[in-house]
Amino acid sequence: LFRSLMSVATNPALDLSKTPRALMFVFIGALLCVLDFSINGLDVLNDVVGTILVFVGVYRLAAIRVDSRYTRAMAFVRAISAIAVMDALRVQFFSGMQLHDLFTFVLHVLGLLKLAAVVFFCYSMRLLCIAAELPKSDRSWQFTMRLFFMIYVIPLSLIYMSQIAALVQGKPFSFNFGGAWFLVVLVALLAPLVSFFVSVTKMKNEIR
Fold this sequence. Notes:
Shape: globular
Structural class: mainly alpha
Order of helices and strands: HHEEHHHHH
Helix content: over 70%
Low-confidence stretches: none
């Protein structure tokens, strides 16, 4: 089944000249969203800017014609990226607004969809690499996808589902790291992004 999912007709004639730049948009945008740094109350690494960069990169990558699976997967990623921009705008300008439980529930579901979008994105990049006959990049994206799945998707999915369960039951939910664990979590969260950057670099070099 997995082999059939990764089976795609090769097309060395694919124009990938703009792909590395689009991927860098996604990488920088994701980095801005993960990191949080403020100076005198000003959010220097703004999530709105980050989500817009991700959307622009995803939009450009989605325009590449690989096959129907790539098109559908990237259409989903593009839709979630657009919703993420709107959610970042909500947080930026209406963060003090009291949210109804139903809207909070929708936000938790959106969190799960964002995680699914990350997996679909990495899957799409593998399809693109296979179609363009970029074996080194394909292996790198495979490793990156595994890192995202283990470090982001599994733990955060459990947290989101716990939040949803607590919301449905009307119980409070809190989850935080303190002390040395914070540094461990920070390093772990950066690992997939480093792998992402390595994959982009390998893809750029292999396209040349």
